[in-house]
Amino acid sequence: QVRLVESGGGLVQTGDSLRLSCAASGRPLRYYHVGWFRQAPGKEREFVASISGSGGSTYYAESVKGRFTITRDNAKNTMYLQMNSLKPEDTAGYFCATSAKELASRSGEYNYWGQGTQVTVSS
Questions:
Q1: Could you tell me which residues come within 8 angstroms of residue 110 by beta carbon, excluding any fewer than 6 positions away?
Q2: How far apart are CA 65 and CA 84, in angstroms?
Q3: How far is Cα 98 from Cα 107, in angstroms, rounded to an integer?
């Protein structure tokens, strides 16, 4: 029922920053807990970060902790992923998704997904 569209990806250099956005339509984003995943070619989809419906709690993968920040603005039906100190290993397609479970970290626990936005970090 909810449609998600990611934006903000691009080609950057090691150490640069990017902010990804995920805009929801069809249903209010506040109905859902949300998260970000990424997937590089030939690799499995990897959990990045999640945030509770009200924005009061967050959870991060160890690989991005201290560098990435997940936020949401329910009034704008939008969630964000601020990515700092980017590394080549962060290169992947990034996807936002919704979940009925708070701070879920498994892809199977998410139901609606965006189309993805590509982030490429050169060395």
A1: 35, 37, 97, 98, 99, 104
A2: 10
A3: 10
Alpha helices in the chain (DSSP H): none
Contact 119, 26 (CB under 8 A): no
Contact 18, 36 (CB under 8 A): no
Contact 14, 86 (CB under 8 A): yes
CA–CA separation, 52 and 34 (whole Å) = 7
Collapsing DSSP to helix, strand or coil, 80 comes out as strand
Give the model's pLDDT for residue 85: 98
* Burial class of residue 75, CB neighbours in 10 A (0-12, 13-18, 19+): exposed
Per-residue pLDDT, 1: 86
Parallel, antiparallel or unpaired: strands 10-13 and 78-83 = unpaired
Is residue 110 within 8 Å of 2, Cβ to Cβ?
no
Amino acid found at 115: Q
Residue spans of the chain under pLDDT 50: none
**2 in Cβ contact with 27 (< 8 Å):** yes
